[in-house]
Amino acid sequence: MKRRDALKFIAACAALPRLALAATANSRTVIGAAWRGPNKDDPYFAGALIADWEAKRLTIRYAVPLPTRPHGILAEADGGLLVLGVRPGTWMLRCDGAGKLVRQIRLDEDGATARLGGHAAFSADGALLYTTETDFRDGRGRVGVRERQTLKKLTEWETHGIDPHQLLLDAQGHVMVANGGVPRTAEDKKYDLHRMESSLVRLDAGSGKLLRQWRLDDPRLSLRHIAWNTDAAGRARLGIAMQAEHADAAARRAAPILAVLDDDRLTVPTRANDGIGYAGDIAAAGNGGFVTSSNQAGLAQLWQPAAPDALATVAAIKEAYALAPWAGPTGGGIVVATALGLGRWHPTAQPMLLPWPQPMALDNHWVALGEA
How many domains does the chain have? Predict the structure, then answer.
């Protein structure tokens, strides 16, 4: 990475309309993240990063070694993390706010036929953990219902699809699951893409009963990562980052990357995309909108309901991927992991790019842990 790449990030942020230019926040933001060293065979770690905006410095609070490559990360109340192995995942672990390993389980040591999809969510009362899984006896999607503290599986529910990826709760505490719909082998190889059955489902949080299922007209659009946002009027929307799986390369490049569930209607609000058809992550952003990242294109793009036909670039920099909300002075900003460092965008604050504290490659997702 060269200095001009960082300047592209700053220029892209500065070009967006602002309500007013606020002073840079002087607080420190804590991010739960996962990373490896700069080489592909370097070991993986998960931990907490501290972004000191006033000092313009990024430091590591703690780092926990991981068995293999990770994927999804959840924030624990004490500043610790719950980390899941990448699909088809065989492990998950918890560390506390000091970076001490508290618990770890391995699915490949207990005879389980299911493997993790890479994401999880806590139940509304905090007692349970829901995990996306695939049972490779039949290839169907499951939600594993687990004790939060022990991570022991209590039961499992059908996701009424295949390749379940991310899941979140809705306002009633029910479980929303994005079924990616891609047939995969136990070695994570795609096959028979003409059989794709991507969908979004709502499952009853008590019984797992199917309450609603949505599909798009194009079955080759894989629904993968999801995020909720609520606008100033109190209207909630679910943003869904999509990845195109069309056989034709031109169709993939032209494919939309964002779907939105609004008033129980699943739509594709804009055909604007990244030129590749691959949205890697999604996070809530200002004015009820969403930012999607496209690491292959080196873009993070903002969608807002006030301008539903458009995507506005908020970062143009290599390996723009992991996203998390950043409140900043008034709320509505995001932090994004890039090849060069941690970038932030906010509609009313100066953009900033903090270099990594050591040579490191960030993984796909991270989570805000609060202010320090």
Answer: 1
